[in-house]
């Protein structure tokens, strides 16, 4: 309404100018009006058609994206489905995650188990002390033979390495669960076309999980190799004892 009044005032001013102005001034105003009319016609007929064509192309591209590339209806259905699944499974997952797993009843084993299930890499420094309190330290040089002490030390070192790796793995698993939960939330609220970004994030998290699984597998292989080596040590000692016994028997039998 205000624009209409402004145009009306402008027309009245131009009309008054034509009536009151001299003939030469009227000719100049008429030329200006003709020039403006020509510009308006050019913008409307020439440039306007091009702009309308560009707008039509943009409209068709947007329709193609919404119907074929990123169908809004199906995306909204998927978001609602993800929200329903999170609502149904989120509570169950929380209950499973909150189940108390500690089983030790005595004080010293319970302290070690609490550290092992803490899912905190900062607790690794305390594991050695709790481990020694439960399984004792290596005997001194005057209390055990050197070969026995070496086997004990090797077994304890591999066991400690596996326990520390397990703690770090639990912490990494906790972080990966948070990343997975964040990806679920982003999926439920993400805009069309952001699927490649979410896919990259999930692939990176998957690679991190696989790397941690490889570390756990390596720790398990080291532990198994150490156990086999310790079993083989017993066989070697048995063979050495049998050889010594045989030599002693031969010496006894060959005495005059």
In words, what does this structure look like?
With 256 residues, this protein is mainly α. The protein has 2 domains: 2-69, no CATH class; 105-253, no CATH class. It has 7 helices and no strands. It has helices at residues 2-20, 23-69, 72-97, 107-116, 124-135, 146-189, 195-253.
Fill in the keyword field for this structure.
single chain; 256 residues; mainly alpha
Brief summary:
By secondary structure, the protein is mainly alpha-helical.
What topology emerges from the helices and strands here?
Blueprint: H1 2-20, H2 23-69, H3 72-97, H4 107-116, H5 124-135, H6 146-189, H7 195-253
Helix pairs in contact: 1-2, 3-6, 4-5, 5-6, 6-7
β-strand percent reads: under 5%
Helix content: over 70%
Largest sheet: none
How many individual domains? Answer: 2
> Helix and strand succession?
HHHHHHH
According to DSSP, the number of beta strands is 0
For the terminal residues, how far apart are their CA atoms? 138 Å
Please state the average pLDDT score: 77
């Amino acid at each position: 309404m205000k624009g209409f009044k402004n145009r009306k005032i402008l027309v009245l001013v131009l009309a008054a100018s034509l009536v009151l102005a001299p003939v030469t001034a009227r000719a100049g105003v008429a030329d200006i009006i003709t020039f403006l009319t020509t510009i308006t016609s050019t913008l409307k007929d020439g440039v306007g058609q091009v702009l309308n064509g560009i707008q039509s192309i943009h409209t068709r591209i947007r329709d193609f994206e919404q119907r074929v590339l990123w169908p809004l209806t199906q995306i909204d259905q998927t978001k609602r489905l993800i929200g329903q699944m999170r609502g149904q499974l989120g509570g169950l997952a929380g209950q499973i995650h909150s189940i108390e797993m500690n089983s030790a009843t005595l004080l010293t084993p319970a302290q070690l188990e609490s550290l092992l299930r803490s899912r905190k890499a900062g607790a690794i420094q305390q594991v050695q002390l709790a481990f020694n309190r439960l399984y004792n330290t290596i005997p001194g040089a005057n209390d055990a033979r050197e070969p026995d002490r070496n086997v004990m030390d090797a077994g304890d070192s591999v066991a400690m390495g596996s326990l520390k790796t397990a703690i770090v793995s639990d912490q990494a698993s906790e972080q990966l669960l948070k990343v997975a939960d964040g990806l679920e939330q982003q999926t439920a609220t993400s805009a069309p076309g952001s699927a490649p970004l979410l896919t990259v994030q999930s692939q990176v998290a998957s690679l991190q999980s696989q790397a941690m699984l490889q570390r756990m597998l390596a720790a398990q292989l080291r532990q198994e190799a150490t156990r086999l080596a310790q079993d083989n040590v017993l066989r070697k000692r048995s063979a050495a004892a049998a050889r010594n016994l045989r030599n002693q028997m031969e010496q006894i039998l060959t005495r005059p």
